[in-house]
Amino acid sequence: MSIMGMADRLLERNAAPDWLTRIGIRKLLSERLVDESSATVEEEMRRKMAMIKSLKGEEIAIEQEKANEQHYELPTKFFLLTLGKRRKYSSCYYESPDASLDAAEESMLRMYCQRAGLKDGMSVLDLGCGWGSLSLYVAENYPNCKVTGLSNSWTQREFIEGEARRNGYKNLSIVTGDITKITRLQGITSSFDLIMSIEMFEHMKNYGALLNKISKWMKKDGKLFVHIFCHNKYIYNFETEGPSNWMGRYFFTGGTMGSDDILGYFQEDVKLIERWRVDGRHYAQTSEHWLQNFDKNIEEIRGILRSTYGTEATKWEAYWRTFYLAVAELFGYNNGQEWYVAHYLFEKR
User: Model pTM?
Assistant: First the structure.
């Protein structure tokens, strides 16, 4: 049996110590960089442009239902036990090394609104709204905004609507639908001052077709703000085959790791007006905090895993812990300068 095969067997039995799992993850990351690199800058650019061309020939997204199964249709209680107060299932921002997860959630949400130029009274669409961290934040802090969230998950919609009722927010609506299929947001204005998308693009393929669709929901002077995690120069698909593609197989089937500049190649319908980078160590610390919450609440979480995965609960306990470890190691690699978060601000052409 290969070393990777032995590691998988240990993992499935939840018998792999964290230090060994982390070493294995770092090894896979270094191998990924070797695989993606080319001998010359010319060849590196040829490979990159070939990937761009390939994405432009794809559907907007593939394996959408698989993404739901892997993340978003687990009982909401699982995520309430692992995420912060705002239920932000994406990178947070740590203004100080000792900041709490709750404070880091608030800092990143505040940053989005500042960078997007959000003003009270705007109509706002939150694409891929998760458990409503951004939608609820805007509804609370910008009470004159009309906020619409688009979710691909019924459980997420039910949770967000419940939170809105509990807090008395009258300015928030949630629509359930698949971004690849939906054309009109029924019963709601289809023209927005600001559209925001936080870690949805990673599940997409043809960004050109996606941005074309989004542009039709933007007012003439509307803006689009995108948060996407990325590598500093490489583009690759999350594959499912082979021992080194564990993340693609269990957590990001159909997804894409974009490069820092990837969306700049898809400007037919929107025009890039500003870009920012967020050091990967912020995401690494976010995932370390998720793991700490997971371990702190492990007894309650085990009950949820048993009800969800049945006889495979032990394996999936290990898989979820490994997911958090993998995210932490990915974004902490090379001191957060290799993989990190990119922010884009577009206007409509």
Answer: 0.92
CA pair distance 7, 91, nearest whole angstrom: 28
Q: 60 or 172: whose pLDDT is higher?
A: 172
Cβ of 259: how many Cβ atoms within 10 Å? 19
pLDDT for residue 333: 97
Mean pLDDT, residues 291-304 taken together: 97
Q: What angle do CA 54, 56, 61 make, to 5 degrees?
A: 95
Residues with Cβ within 8 Å of 155's Cβ and at least 6 positions away in sequence, in order, are: 72, 73, 75, 76
Other C-beta atoms closer than 10 Å to the C-beta of 207 total 24
Tokens of 22: 């982390």
Q: Is 100 strand, coil or helix?
A: coil
% of residues, the chain, pLDDT over 70: 86
**Fold category of 3-348 in CATH:** Rossmann fold (3.40.50)
Cβ contacts of 308 within 8 Å, gap of 6 or more? 74, 75, 78, 316
